[in-house]
Amino acid sequence: MFVDKANIHVRAGDGGNGVVSFHREKYVAAGGPDGGDGGRGGNVVLQVDTHMSTLMDFRYKRKYAAERGADGGGRLKSGKSGADLVIKVPNGTVVRDRDTNAVIHDMTGSEPYILARGGNGGWGNKHFATPTRQAPRFAKAGLRGEARDVVLELKLLADVGLVGFPNVGKSTLLSVVSKAHPKIADYHFTTLYPNLGLVYINEGESFVMADIPGIIEGAAEGAGLGHDFLRHIDRCRLIIHVVDASGSEGRDPITDFETINDELRRYNPELASRPQLVAANKCDIAAGGETLDAFREYITKKGLPLYEISAAAHTNVKQLMQAAAAQLRELPPIIEYEPEYIPPAALPGKPEETAITHEDDVWFLEGEWLERLVRNTNFSDNESRGFFNRSLEAGGVFARLNEMGIEEGDTVSIYDLEFDWEE
């Protein structure tokens, strides 16, 4: 099954916690603090895999998490860093932020990309020893790893895109000029997913061509299959517009030509202005017909290059491919999408963002800044508890509680901790 869009959640590893430890050795008095630092959490890394051609792997697995860093140990032993999680994606995958749809990165090369960074490890108590505080009984907790909800969107890396109504001969043309083997039949929507083929021109010159299926009237709004696959034309430098010039199905090639171009314009106005070669296919059964003559006159007036071909009979197909190669030499390289996403500040929240809710005589406090403060506090140590209280006061949390009417004896609930309020 061809899957070209997927939503996933990624979380980098949290940093390991620093530890509280004191040197213990026979005949060594007052060995001092020797708590080691926590290890860094693993990153979530994207890596292009040239053997992948679909996002099928992400259809059933949506959550990816890297390894957490190990906690530190005594004797100044640092915790082991968490292993990076490498996620492989097809070449041409565009990574977007799910909430804003902004481009985070375009995976079009061999360089890996760090999508979510692991949290730093916390400091052990050795870092907090001073001449006046020689036995610190607290350490720092590790920082949380980054978490992101992203959309993976595959946009094929093709130089040339074949567009046209179903059953006009796009798949036949691709099979004739390349080694691709798309399914070919005489009914509409035979091709259910894009097919890629390498077109060889001569020594050292070739290009990639894609058969884009399912574009019909209303494709830009989701009719047919076009809404799903129009994105694959975005990168194409040149468009070959294939039209059934025989009128064998009772269709008017001029109307079909304008309808497809209108759908391209509605999907992305820039696409309609992209260079086009027009391939009037099935000319072997349209020779001398009024339909072909009218279409030839129409395209000539538009100033577009017209190639009268028969993909099934291999007529003029080589000339069409040579013309495409000649035009590609003059065109800029395949489009790469520039990052648009601006990541939020990496700071762990602010004191003023602490949420305070009141139910009966219990006051509930929550917030990212407060959660980290709790994790960094050793409540069995007087000095560490004093630092916790001073941080709440300096952050304006106590003042806000007083303004909201807290009374002596009320309970203050901070995550899994409860305190009695005293004036």
Describe the structure.
The protein has 423 residues and is α/β, with parallel strands linked by helices. It folds into 3 domains: 1-154, Distorted Sandwich (Spo0b-associated Gtp-binding Protein, Chain: A), CATH 2.70.210; 160-330, P-loop containing nucleotide triphosphate hydrolases (Rossmann fold, 3-Layer(aba) Sandwich); 351-420, GMP Synthetase, Chain A, domain 3 (2-Layer Sandwich), CATH 3.30.300. The protein has 9 helices and 18 strands. Strand 13, helix 5 and strand 14 form a beta-alpha-beta unit. The chain starts with a strand and ends with a strand.
Question: Which features characterize this protein?
Answer:
423 residues, alpha/beta, Rossmann fold, GMP Synthetase, Chain A, domain 3, six-stranded mixed β-sheet, single chain, Spo0b-associated Gtp-binding Protein, Chain: A
The ordered H/E elements are EEEEEEEEEHEEHEHHEHEHEEHHHEE
The general outline is: elongated
* CATH H-tier superfamily of the largest domain: P-loop containing nucleotide triphosphate hydrolases
Q: Could you tell me the strand content as a percent range?
A: 15-25%
Query: Tell me, what is the CATH class of the largest domain?
Result: Alpha Beta
Number of domains: 3
Number of strands: 18
For the residues shown, what is the average pLDDT?
87
Helical content class: 10-25%
Give the N-terminus to C-terminus distance in angstroms. Answer: 67 Å
CATH A-level architecture of the largest domain: 3-Layer(aba) Sandwich
Query: Could you give a short account of the major beta sheet?
Result: 6 strands, mixed
Number of helices: 9
Give me the CATH fold name of the largest domain.
Rossmann fold
Rg, alpha carbons: 32 Å
Class per helix and strand makeup: alpha/beta
The poorly predicted ranges are none
